[in-house]
What we know:
This protein has 296 residues and is of the alpha/beta class. It has 10 helices and 14 strands.
Amino acid sequence: xxxxxxxxTGAGLGLRRALLGPLLAYDxxxxxxxxxxxxxxxxxxxxxxxxxxxSFRHLTKRxxxxxxxxxxxxxxxxxxxxxxxxxxxxFMDEFQIRAYSEHLSYCTDEGHLYDLMPIPFTxxxxxxxxxxxxxxxxxxxxxxxxxxVSYYAAPGAELSEIDFINAVISEADCDLLLDVNNIYVNxxxxxxxxxxxxxxxxxERIAYGHIAGHYNEAEDLIVDTHGANIIGDVWDLLExxxxxxxxFPTLLERDFNIPPVTELLTEVQKIKTIQDKWSTDVRAYDGxxxxxxxxx
Length: 296
């Protein structure tokens, strides 16, 4: 079981612009009882002004916030956008954002591709990506977290997905944003055991986690959409993550087909309920021996 401090605690909700008004209008006490922290894509808020900025500031005074980027393109072939990274640090300082994460992917090549593309799983890519993560960490003055992403092809792969992720984290000395749904999606699409994959991740590096819904295109193809309710198998995998690594802050992502706030809070509350269950379980899982401290 990992023993480390996290930038936030509890169960969180991703803030989308469409949710700003409904969340502000919803009963503040009921919201605060369920939501422990919130997350935003900094690209959607850095240049916002006027009333929307003040509304956002109001929420940042009520909840701890983290940032999850969309456009850094950490594995991209073109130089990192240093102007954006400096603006990011200013944004985090202004609103006391506690952590920054990005996708282990790329989305630019002399322009935005408007999708998250898979980085080749190679030793060369490990060193390249780790170097770029180091640049970002030096600029923002803290460790960033990288997210294990969903992907639908693995061009030029020389390493397995899990070996690539672990190598990048170790080489860059960065944290992990553990996306439970992405593990499940990839396990179906690429036919591997999600529990064995989960077990192999560095639990001590987890900053926080994501959980979301997806779309079943076919029996052997799942699309990571963040547009549906979370299914039972993904909830079960989250429980396994808590069993292996201890309870870590976990956030609900919902990007479209957004239901009323009350329905979103039901799923956030379910995260909290599972966290409470595993917080009272004192068994300590040993990732090296594959056993528990009590001998089970």
